[in-house]
Specification:
The protein has 146 residues and is an alpha+beta fold. It has a single domain, classed as 3-Layer(aba) Sandwich (Aminopeptidase). The chain is 31% helix and 32% strand. The chain has four helices and seven strands; from the N terminus they run βααβββαβαββ. A seven-stranded mixed sheet has the order 1-2-3-4-5-7-6, with helices on both faces. Strand 4, helix 3 and strand 5 form a beta-alpha-beta unit. The longest helix has 16 residues. It is globular, with a radius of gyration of 14 Å.
Amino acid sequence: MEMEIWNLKEREEWIRRAAEWFHEKWDVPAGEYEASMRESSRGTDGVPQWYIAVEQGEIVGGVGVIENDFHNRKDLALNVCVLYVEENFHSRGIAAGALLEQVCGDMRSAGLKRLCLITNHPSVAERYGWKFLGMVQGIRMYEKEL
């Protein structure tokens, strides 16, 4: 079975499992993820949006799009957040090649013009055309025109 990228608003049965998975990776309470994911499932094309990469029934990666990724630059919105891929799936193009491509395509289709991304992994952002904006609270901020 090949890996698939799912928008959780179309896969509500995966929300609780995805919330736990993100909680394990980022140590934010699972209930906060679940509330945001349930908000996204109400049918809007705006934010928040949540995506998971699934292979053989297991979550192998995930990403969200939210208004602000807990930084003090409110002018730098909308934000790609909590991008994570399981270590044994690194170097397979899941993070940038699949998850980010899906996010950017969906946000472009929804009429959005720009996304921002805070990351400690600049090579991934730069390889896929994200432009460095500067440091925000000690972390590198990138943007991508859609």
